[in-house]
């Protein structure tokens, strides 16, 4: 195979964006995600419906805004991963312009619950997590990455914990066990899922007082931006204009043919494995006969 057949010039297959918005309750993640979708939809001149997979029954509050912006929106209330996979197919085929999953956290929790029920588990062990996390990666993450289209999902926030060091005496004996303390925050979902996106935003809110009156402020922290246009920035009361640079970047990418993965299965089947073992035994037997 020649090099120009193996690889192509560095281009983009298409112009699309994948983004995630995480945060605690009341942080404005759904509203900000909606603002992002509307702005990107208009700037990218899209014309197919926006499909919303809703498990918070909150999409009804977006009806006036979608109508105002003259964007067709269709919705399905679900917590099923199978429905997410079907939605990926609709997006890949071009039947919809945008997929909005609100919240992905509940779909992940349902996936865990189904696993527990199928395996009659009351509690998840380390062995169970060792099985379910690779399965989630295969059933969601890989399909998410492979789908070529605009996807936005939201996720509930949770705290990360670290264990403090144990207090020991001069002989090395533990006199007081270290407690678990909050060390950070993350989206309540499997491992690196939020970072599979091109844009990862963490939403936060603060209740403050101005002029003797309570005021709520909303913040967007850019945890990841593959274009590096707004990476690491913090926006107060974020709107689409704050995220526009990453859409500008994507629209400026050249579109062309992308070299695909070389096909071929190098993993031996059970039959091939046993045939190899048989041939190995025959060769060993002949060698022994020759030596004798």
Query: Which CATH-level-2 architecture?
Result: 3-Layer(aba) Sandwich
Q: Which sequence of SSEs, written as H and E, runs from N to C?
A: HEHEHEHEHHEEEEEEEHH
List low-confidence stretches. none
User: Taking Cα atoms only, what radius of gyration do you get, to the nearest Å?
Assistant: 25 Å
DSSP, total strands: 11
The main pleated sheet reads as: 9 strands, mixed
- Which structural class matches the secondary elements? alpha/beta
Total domain count:
1
What is the terminal-to-terminal distance?
47 Å
Shape: globular
Briefly, what CATH class? Alpha Beta
- Contiguous helical run count: 8
Helix content range: 25-40%
Protein described:
With 292 residues, the protein is an alpha/beta fold. It has a single domain, classed as P-loop containing nucleotide triphosphate hydrolases (Rossmann fold, 3-Layer(aba) Sandwich), CATH 3.40.50.300. The protein contains eight helices and eleven strands. Strands 1, 2, 3, 4, 5, 8, 9, 10 and 11 form a nine-stranded mixed β-sheet that branches. It has a two-stranded antiparallel sheet with strand order 6-7. Helix 3 links the parallel strand 2 and strand 3. The two termini are 47 Å apart. The mean pLDDT is 86.
């Amino acid at each position: 195979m020649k090099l120009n057949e193996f690889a192509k010039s560095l281009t983009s297959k298409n112009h699309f964006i994948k983004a995630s918005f995480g945060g605690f309750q009341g942080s404005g993640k759904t509203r900000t995600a909606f603002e992002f979708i509307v702005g990107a939809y208009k700037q990218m001149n899209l014309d197919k419906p926006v499909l919303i997979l809703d498990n918070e029954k909150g999409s009804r509050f977006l009806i006036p805004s979608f109508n105002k912006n003259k964007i067709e929106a269709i919705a399905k209330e679900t917590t099923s991963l199978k429905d997410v996979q079907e939605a990926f197919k609709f997006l890949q085929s071009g039947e919809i312009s945008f997929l909005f999953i609100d919240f992905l956290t509940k779909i992940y929790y349902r996936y865990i619950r189904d696993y527990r029920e199928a395996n009659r588990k009351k509690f998840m062990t380390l062995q169970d997590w060792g099985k379910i996390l690779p399965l989630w990666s295969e059933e969601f993450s890989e399909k998410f990455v492979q789908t070529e289209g605009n996807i936005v999902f939201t996720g509930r926030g949770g705290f990360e914990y670290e264990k403090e060091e144990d207090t020991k005496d001069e002989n090395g004996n533990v006199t007081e066990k270290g407690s678990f303390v909050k060390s950070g925050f993350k989206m309540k979902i499997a491992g690196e899922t939020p970072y599979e996106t091109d844009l990862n935003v963490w939403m936060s809110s603060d209740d403050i007082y101005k002029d003797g009156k309570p005021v709520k402020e909303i913040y967007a922290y850019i945890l990841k931006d593959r274009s590096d246009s707004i990476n690491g920035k913090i926006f107060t009361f974020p709107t689409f204009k704050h995220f526009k640079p990453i859409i500008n970047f994507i629209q400026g990418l050249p579109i062309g043919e992308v070299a695909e993965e070389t096909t071929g299965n190098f993993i031996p089947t059970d039959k091939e494995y046993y045939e190899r073992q048989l041939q190995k035994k025959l060769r060993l037997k002949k060698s022994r006969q020759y030596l004798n």
